[in-house]
């Protein structure tokens, strides 16, 4: 295997991992701070993708569509938190699983009602219609690099917010001891609403940004949700750092799995998870 | 808790069972043209009820919320599909033990890895392993990939060259499913009354204390997980026989979620509750489907309503209604009527996890 | 090491949580059929000590010798099977089960295995008998059919004791059996414990000094995770160091 091919796969793996991180970080934050296991998180990824596709068709610009879909996803997330998720704080995980499962059914059906069953694609924006030529035969698409850069920037921004700001302090306090947040006299309702909305927006953004390189299709949220669970299980529930490393691991495992054992590519991911579970049942960073 | 059933509840359930068993007689008169379809539907529901009961052993009894249980259901079906010769019948005495053996082994391995975790982890890990099974068959060309696989000839039930049962016969198969349903229920009741069952029930209430008493909770949870997985495999075997077809969706997490809803809707920890839940949910599904193409929407609303409004499920309501003491229940009360055990009847109620453990405890409420 | 006349003994038992030393080199010996109280102010490490003794926490260092064999690091379910039973500071029962079933389950734990799947649990006569005996001993015979969670707090504490007794232990490790009890309930419990002290090796962790002095023959005092003093009741009561560190003015009353 030549070195360029290998490099391309590493880049793909990292790019996929970063995208997963955007979704998984929301999932792990929502659990860490609010104690909620949110199965409907993948639905926001799907929502972001469909909004981007739909708005890109209306406005003619993917950039505008992505920017518009962001507040929409956040807003819908905020409303759902206020209407339904809030009920779950005092319930156990089983109720959370069921209620958010019910939400998935509604989300999936709403998607079919509004946008139908067809698989859609978004054309690559003209600005990214070029590739970086690596060798005679191999090149790397510029959009994937851009995507990685955006995700990496967001990851850094998230790190700074969590490590350096007051909001981040609450988040950290909440993740390590949920009761403490309330004791600190913080407006818990608002904090939870914002965290949920941010999580939804991150997942939505990931979905929106991925549209030029993946198809927009029913059920796309489910696939990502399961992978994010794997990421969170590997990293440790509630740990953003763990989510990041878990996402990288899964991104690379998935990408290389597809290259080396194409018939059982989805297996590699679960193989990694099983190995981590054997070694550290509570995840790498819990 | 091997709850004792009040006599009234037992009678009610027996009446329902009789109505179901006699459906081939009265259904023909009542529904005429729709009868064959309903026969098939009810058979399918009974099979799902078996799956739901097996999940109840985990969720309602042991307090293990599995979101990957359908994987064993699908696996049982796939074993039959893979072992069936293309143009002739497989031998039931061979394929059934194989299907059960394979699902038992798979649930042992998955259980071993999953029960090391608890609470939210357990949910995520079982979900992930369930999807692993889904993708295994979805990506496997030998198993027909995402299209699934057909079983053209149903397994033959023969002894000494004589056909005992013709599973191709709708009526015969209806009663095979019904018999299996009743047998699995009886088996699980027996199991729950045994020393093993008592320990598993106690684990669902207070695992920490169970260990303090001298039981190794891991071992009991693993055995329970394996038993539940194997029964699920039996259900999948029946489902594959009925439809003559398997596909990866049988293993998927939507199927797992669907069965979990049956358990909760019916009333977890009661065994009969999940059976009722299977019938109610599937008939509701059928009703929604016949009204709108977008039946998932009312389904989703219904699921959310169940969570918010019916914490103890239908079984909880039934137990409440049937044990409302008659005004002059002077001597004895309900318990002595059945005299089976020391427990008053109750359905498990879900309570918030304690902050210390973070685990989704499934505790039972005192009446 | 030479054989000791202790049935249970800790040697340099140490537990560290992160950077916090909860138990530091604690060495205490417990003699057979003796009532031995472990006291100390809040945060002295008594609960940690109990959890180490009974396998609920693995020690960071040191030994726990039961009849001369080191059992440090054994998980809780194995320790209790050796005959070291414990009760819990926070009531730790199965609230939805009947009183009898709580005790029965405890007694069932002494079957060689509970991996028995078909015969009804209630048909094990020996187990039922042990459970009833334990309820009797704890003064709960009349309450057998009550749902545990609906009993009074004091009765739930008695049930806690009954459950330990049903496991037929040699050593009873009781973690604050009087915690949260009213005067009347306490008196009942002290009488029960005095009775038990005649038949079992008793390790009693307790705050209530009246109770300790009424029950224990030997006293160990822990402060800041270390053992301050250990010896016969009167000797420890008289010890200057103990009085300064812990008993303080309150001890003058006795």
From TrEMBL, chain A:
Q: Where are the transmembrane segments?
A: 6-29, 36-56, 62-85, 97-115, 143-162, 182-204, 224-252, 259-279
Q: What is this protein called?
A: ABC transporter permease
Q: How does it sit in the membrane?
A: Multi-pass membrane protein
Where is this chain primarily localised? membrane
Q: Which family does it belong to?
A: Belongs to the binding-protein-dependent transport system permease family. LivHM subfamily.
InterPro entries for the chain = ABC_transp_permease, BCAA_transport_permease
Q: Which domain of life is it from?
A: Bacteria
Question: Which species is the source of this protein?
Answer: Paramagnetospirillum marisnigri
Q: Which GO terms describe its cellular component?
A: plasma membrane
Keywords assigned by UniProt?
Amino-acid transport, Cell membrane, Membrane, Transmembrane, Transmembrane helix, Transport
Record's subcellular location: Cell membrane
From TrEMBL, chain C:
**What's one Pfam family the UniProt record gives for this protein?**
ABC_tran
The record ties this protein, via SUPFAM superfamilies, to: P-loop containing nucleoside triphosphate hydrolases
Keyword field contains Phosphoprotein: no
Record keywords = ATP-binding, Nucleotide-binding, Transport
Indicate the segments forming the ABC transporter domain, all copies.
8-249
- One of the record's GO cellular component terms: plasma membrane
**Superkingdom classification of source:** Bacteria
A GO molecular function held by the record:
ATP hydrolysis activity
Q: What is this protein called?
A: ABC transporter ATP-binding protein
């Amino acid at each position: 295997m030549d070195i360029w091919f290998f490099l391309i796969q590493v880049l793909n793996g990292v790019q996929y991992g970063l995208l997963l991180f955007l979704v998984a970080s929301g999932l792990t934050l929502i659990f860490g701070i609010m104690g909620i296991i949110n199965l409907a998180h993948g639905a926001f990824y799907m929502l972001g993708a469909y909004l981007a596709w739909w708005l890109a068709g209306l406005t003619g610009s993917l950039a505008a569509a992505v920017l518009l879909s962001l507040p929409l996803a956040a807003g819908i997330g905020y409303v759902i938190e206020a209407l339904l998720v809030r009920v779950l704080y005092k319930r156990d995980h089983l109720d959370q699983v069921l209620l958010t499962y019910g939400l998935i059914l509604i989300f999936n059906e709403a998607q079919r009602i509004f946008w139908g069953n067809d698989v859609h694609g978004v054309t690559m924006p003209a600005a990214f219609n070029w590739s970086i030529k690596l060798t005679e035969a191999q090149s790397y698409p510029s959009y994937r690099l851009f995507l990685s850069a955006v995700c990496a920037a967001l990851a850094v921004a998230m790190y700074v917010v969590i490590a350096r700001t007051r909001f981040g302090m609450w988040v950290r306090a909440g993740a390590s001891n949920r009761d403490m947040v309330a004791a600190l006299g913080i407006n818990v309702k608002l904090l939870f609403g914002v965290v949920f909305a941010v999580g939804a927006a991150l997942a939505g953004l990931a979905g929106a940004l991925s549209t030029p390189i993946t198809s927009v299709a029913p059920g796309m949220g489910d696939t990502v949700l399961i992978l994010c669970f794997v990421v969170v299980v590997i990293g440790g529930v509630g740990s953003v750092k763990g989510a990041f490393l878990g996402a990288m691991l899964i991104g690379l495992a998935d990408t290389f799995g597809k290259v080396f054992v194409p018939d059982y590519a989805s297996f590699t991911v679960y193989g990694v998870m099983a190995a981590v579970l054997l070694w550290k049942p509570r995840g790498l960073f819990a | 808790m091997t709850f004792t059933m009040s006599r009234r509840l037992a009678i009610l359930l027996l009446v329902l069972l009789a109505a179901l068993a006699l459906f081939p007689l009265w259904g023909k008169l009542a529904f005429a043209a729709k009868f064959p379809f309903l026969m098939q539907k009810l058979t399918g529901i009974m099979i799902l009820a078996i799956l739901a009961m097996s999940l109840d052993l985990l969720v309602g009894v042991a307090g293990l919320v599995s979101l990957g249980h359908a994987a064993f259901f699908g696996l049982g079906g796939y074993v039959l599909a893979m072992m069936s010769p293309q143009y002739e019948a497989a031998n039931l005495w061979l394929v059934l033990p194989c299907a059960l053996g394979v699902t038992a082994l798979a649930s042992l391995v998955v259980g071993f890895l999953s029960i090391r975790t608890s609470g939210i982890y357990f949910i995520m890990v079982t979900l992930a392993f369930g999807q692993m099974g889904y993708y295994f068959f979805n990506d496997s060309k030998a198993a027909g990939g995402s299209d699934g696989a057909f079983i053209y000839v149903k397994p033959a039930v023969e002894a000494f060259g004589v056909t005992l049962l013709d599973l191709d016969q709708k009526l015969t198969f209806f009663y095979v499913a019904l018999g299996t349903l009743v047998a699995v229920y009886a088996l699980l009741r027996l199991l729950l009354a045994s020393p093993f069952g008592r320990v598993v029930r106690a684990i669902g209430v207070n695992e920490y204390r169970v260990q303090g008493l001298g039981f190794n909770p891991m071992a009991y949870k693993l055995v329970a997980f394996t038993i539940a997985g194997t029964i699920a495999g039996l259900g999948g075997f029946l489902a594959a026989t009925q439809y003559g077809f398997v596909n990866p969706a049988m293993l998927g997490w939507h199927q797992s979620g669907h069965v979990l809803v049956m358990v909760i809707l019916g009333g977890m920890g009661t065994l009969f509750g999940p059976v009722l839940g299977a019938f109610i949910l599937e008939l509701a599904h059928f009703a929604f489907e016949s009204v709108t193409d977008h039946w998932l929407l009312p389904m989703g609303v219904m699921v959310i309503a169940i969570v918010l409004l019916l914490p103890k499920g239908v079984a909880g309501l039934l137990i409440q209604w049937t044990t409302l003491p008659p005004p002059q229940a002077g001597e004895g009360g309900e318990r002595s009527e059945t005299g089976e055990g020391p427990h008053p009847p109750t359905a498990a109620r879900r309570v918030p996890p304690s902050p210390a453990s973070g685990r989704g405890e499934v505790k039972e409420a005192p009446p | 090491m030479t054989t000791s006349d202790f049935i249970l003994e800790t040697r340099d038992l140490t537990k560290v949580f992160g950077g916090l030393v909860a138990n530091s080199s604690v060495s205490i010996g417990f003699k057979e059929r003796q009532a031995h109280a472990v006291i100390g102010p809040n945060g002295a490490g008594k609960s940690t000590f109990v959890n180490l003794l009974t396998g609920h926490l693995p020690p960071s260092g040191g030994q726990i010798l039961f009849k001369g064999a080191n059992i440090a690091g054994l998980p809780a379910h194995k320790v209790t099977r050796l005959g070291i039973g414990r009760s819990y500071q926070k009531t730790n029962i199965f609230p939805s089960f009947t009183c009898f079933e709580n005790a029965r389950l405890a007694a069932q734990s002494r079957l060689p295995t509970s991996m028995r799947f078909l015969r009804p649990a209630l048909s094990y006569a020996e187990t039922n008998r042990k459970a009833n005996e334990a309820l009797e001993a704890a003064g709960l015979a009349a309450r057998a059919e009550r749902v545990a969670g609906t009993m009074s707090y004091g009765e739930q504490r008695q049930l806690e004791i009954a459950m330990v007794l049903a496991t037929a232990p040699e050593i009873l490790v009781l973690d604050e059996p009087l915690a949260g009890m009213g005067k009347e309930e306490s008196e009942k419990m002290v009488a029960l414990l005095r009775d038990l002290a005649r038949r079992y090796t008793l390790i009693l962790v307790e705050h209530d000094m009246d109770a300790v002095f009424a029950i224990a023959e030997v006293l160990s005092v822990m402060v800041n995770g270390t053992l301050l003093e250990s010896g016969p009741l009167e000797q420890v009561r008289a010890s200057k160091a103990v009085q300064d560190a812990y008993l303080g003015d309150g001890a003058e009353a006795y």
